[in-house]
Amino acid sequence: MSSQLSFEINGRTADLPLISGSEGETAIDISKLRSETGTITLDPGYVNTGACTSGITFLNGEKGILRYRGYPIEQLAENSNFLEVSYLLIHGELPNAGELEDFERNITRHTLLHEDLRHIYQAFPKGAHPMAMLSCVVNALSTFYPDFSSTDQKGVDLAIWRLLGKMPTIASWAFKKNIGQPFIYPSNKLNYCANFLSMMFRVPAVDYEPAEEFVKALNVLFILHADHEQNCSTSTVRLVGSSQANLFASIASGIAALWGPLHGGANQAVLEMLMMIHNDGGNVGKFVEMAKDKDSGFRLMGFGHRVYKNFDPRALIIKNYCDQILEKVGLHDPLLEIAKQLEQVALEDDFFKERKLYPNVDFYSGIIYKALGFPVDMFTVLFALGRLPGWIAHWAEMRQSPPKIGRPRQIYTGAIERPFLPLEARG
Ligand code: SDX
Question: Which of 52, 84, 90, 344 is the most exposed place for a label (fewest CB within 10 A)?
């Protein structure tokens, strides 16, 4: 195949190089398009536009493939744990025993929050959404720690350890704030997921040991959410970081982007949808018909994906895990049955088949979160905790290449030049 695309536009000829990725994908490098032709491209939602090259995660939406640094997600979910996968995403290789021990120790040493941060929680009204608190407090970290994240590797490493160490504490305190229970301090003798469960569900008056199967389930769910190449929130982190904003501010922006119901906020919206269908008598067919009617304003949350035009491999793993977890906790959740019926009806319906709409990562994850005892408004916070290493890895990768601030262009469609109109002449 030719290594360049040559074409003429506006009477000018452009020779644009074609580049190929390690999995054989090709792209037209349009870096010189405007200088050679005076023309730009237009691609709302960046459906066809690559923002960067990246060596972190590979997706194949047609085949339902997801790999972190070349390792299939199915093997990582089965054999690894969240901190090991975090190391892999950030550093590019699976750690040896010494590297993993150092990484875990460095993160564990940074789980505590500065005591003054407690006052920020007191300022939030009762019922404040935990995602708002998470984004706010993560951003506030940059007021407590001088920003070394743009100077040297030691500064970047320290900022990364602080974020990975403190996010579970920040998240659990947002939950405790809303239910009026005392904040629980981290316990450095517990592993990452057990410590988070302890800070979430322990109360000072009662001993609490997180169940092993809950710790395992959280590890699997965090691994499945850890990265997903150039999704909305990760692209946000890269764009904010491209202005040389510090790591805390960049991640706080990613948290804000993730909150949207079309993105990470979908896991909360799915549970609310399933509860609505359940309370309405469980007639899934009625809601599938509504989802097909654009005027209804109803969308089947947890269905569809920009990239996956086949099954989201993460949804398959989570769906199988739902049965295991519910059986382990001895729970029969009618919402799981509704979800399975909804999936079956939708996947047999031409509307969904024609549009290649399948369950995505958010469709079943909430069933497990609910079985683990998390309230619905904490679901997207759990997504953020899982996605943190991916955001960090992309921020670091973006900062390694020569810093080029992200600044898209546009096609102007507003008023052409016109003279100012004095107030009395405006009718
Ligand atoms: C995540 O990008 C990532 O990688 C994200 C993520 C990650 O790990 O970071 O995977 C996590 O965000 C998963 C997606 C969670 N969101 C939802 O579940 C919300 C419901 N889904 C959609 O709103 C939608 O499917 C998106 C946002 C996920 C994808 O939107 P696109 O690619 O812009 O597709 P679209 O909205 O243009 O839809 C294409 C067609 C439209 O119909 P037509 O105009 O062709 O007639 O499909 C229809 C849409 O109306 N459609 C749906 C639908 N999703 C798309 N119709 C009913 N229910 C749905 N859920």
Answer: 344
pTM of the model: 0.96
Nearest CA to ligand 1 atom 49: 355
Candidate list 227, 333, 362, 377, residue with the active-site label: 362
Report residue 7: phi and psi, to 5°: -155, 165
Q: What is the CATH number of domain 73-209+230-258+377-385?
A: 1.10.580.10
Q: How far is the CA of 201 from the centre of ligand 1 (A)?
A: 34
The Cα–Cα gap between 245 and 110 comes to 22
> Of 219, 260, 261, 254, which Cα lies nearest the Cα of 390?
254
What's the CATH architecture for 266-372?
Orthogonal Bundle (1.10)
- Does 81 have pLDDT greater than 80? yes
Task: Name 374's Cβ contacts closer than 8 Å, sequence gap at least 6.
Answer: 200, 382
CATH number of 4-65: 2.20.28
Domain boundaries, the chain: 4-65, 73-209+230-258+377-385, 266-372
pLDDT tens for each residue of 334-391: 999 999 999 999 889 999 999 999 999 999 999 999 999 999 999 999 999 999 999 9
Q: What's the number of CA atoms in the CB half-sphere (13 Å) around residue 78? A: 7
pLDDT of 148 above 70: no
Contacts for 21-28: CB closer than 8 Å, 24+ residues apart: 21/53, 22/55, 22/58, 23/58, 23/60, 26/1
Query: 386 CB under 6 A from ligand 1?
Result: no
* Cβ 87 vs Cβ 94: under 8 Å: yes
pLDDT tens by residue, 290-320:
999 999 999 999 999 999 998 899 999 999 8
